[in-house]
Design brief:
With 357 residues, this protein is mainly alpha-helical. It has 16 helices and 6 strands. The strands form 2 sheets. Strands 1-2-3 form a 3-stranded antiparallel β-sheet, covered by helices on one side. A 3-stranded antiparallel β-sheet has the order 4-5-6, with no helix packed on it. The longest helix has 22 residues.
Length: 357
């Protein structure tokens, strides 16, 4: 409840202070030289409280409340990148969702973004996590008036521009898979760590985005035909991918432990309503495999490196840009041109063919 306090300053001037220290709200304190102004402000605070606006303006709602409200808007549902943004917002919910909006500071946001960088994510990817959260805060400020500022505005954006180039070597893949299987051996079936090895095998074997494999449902998997369909993709377009070799074996392993009523190929061990998250188990396996050291470009191995590696290997083995695009789901040939053979050896071969014609 707001209170009016009369006090005399050191210089002898009489002032009036309105304070509100209600639990769950940021402290409100305003000082006035005129009693009339102080009383008017006090009444306004009390009216706002009765109308439910004081709590709204001072951020009593949690971040989970704000994200839920934001993602139910028509504007969000119509966005082509909505599914990707939802994934980023889910990440924030897992870490800060229970906090009131008023408790989410620029320093707190920056600390979590630094953790993403430590896990090897590029500047452009980290910026997407920042932008997703910023959109929610802009919504709470302009539309809902649940808070009066956007803390993301004080968080520095990362430098973008450099593409991810880290390719996993055969020996590194062997070490990573061995470490992931060791985690599985130390955990009960169905645990996130027990599923990590199969998740990596499918990601590497299909060249898919980790988010696409993460959200893969059983209804889109045909083990007999050796085929799966990614419906929840970054571009919004469904994509069919052959399921062969080690990737097929990995999905078959998951099928053996399939839970009735659970739609996910890689389910959360806690609920049937969400897929598993490998944000913690992958760094553990990477550390156990001694792959935490950055390469010459300063890149740390991340799950996305498996997708880049699969596309690179396809290009080295003679796949055309069209074939790589069909595998990876890139929208334009310019996006996959770097995976095709363009080194000096192949340039020399092209010249020799021209000379012989």
């Amino acid at each position: 409840m707001a209170t009016l306090i009369k006090r005399r300053r050191a210089d002898g001037v009489l002032v009036y202070r309105v304070q509100d220290r209600t639990t769950g709200y940021p402290t409100l304190s305003e000082t006035f030289s005129a009693l009339k102004d102080a009383r008017q402000f006090l009444r306004r605070v009390e009216v706002d409280r009765q109308a439910g606006l004081a709590g709204i303006k001072r951020g009593r709602q949690t971040l989970s409340d704000a994200i839920k409200d934001f993602t139910e808007t028509a504007e969000f549902r119509q966005r082509k990148s909505g599914k990707d943004t939802q994934r980023h917002l889910d990440w924030w919910i897992d870490r800060l969702g229970a906090l009131p909006l008023s408790k989410i500071t620029p320093d707190l946001i920056a600390d979590h973004l630094h953790k993403l960088e430590a896990d090897g994510l590029t500047g452009s990817t980290v910026n997407r996590y920042r932008s997703a959260l910023s959109r929610v805060f802009r919504y709470t400020v302009k539309t809902r008036r649940w808070t009066d500022h956007n803390p993301c505005g004080m968080v520095e954006r990362r430098t973008e521009g450099r593409r991810r180039e880290r390719v996993i070597k055969p020996a590194e893949w062997t070490a990573l898979l061995k470490a992931a299987r060791a985690l599985a051996a130390d955990n009960p079936p169905g645990a996130t760590r027990a599923q990590l090895a199969n998740f990596l095998r499918v990601t590497y074997g299909t060249g898919a985005r980790s988010g696409e494999v993460h959200r893969l449902r059983w209804e889109y998997v045909d083990l007999e035909a050796g085929r799966l369909v990614f419906h929840e993709t970054k571009t919004g377009d469904a994509r069919a991918v052959p399921l062969i070799g080690d990737a097929l074996a990995a999905v078959a392993d998951q099928s053996a432990a399939r839970r009735d009523g659970c739609p996910w190929v890689f389910p959360s061990p806690l609920t049937d309503h969400a897929p598993a998250s490998f944000d913690e188990s992958f760094p553990e396996a990477r550390l156990a495999a001694k792959l935490n050291t950055p390469d010459a470009r300063g890149e740390v191995l991340v799950i996305h490196s498996l997708r880049h590696s699969a596309a690179t290997e396809a290009g080295r083995n003679g796949a055309t840009a069209f074939e790589i695009a069909a595998l990876t789901g890139h929208k334009t040939l310019a996006m996959v041109q770097r995976y095709t053979k363009t080194d000096e050896t192949h340039a020399l071969a092209a010249l020799n063919k021209r000379a012989q014609s």
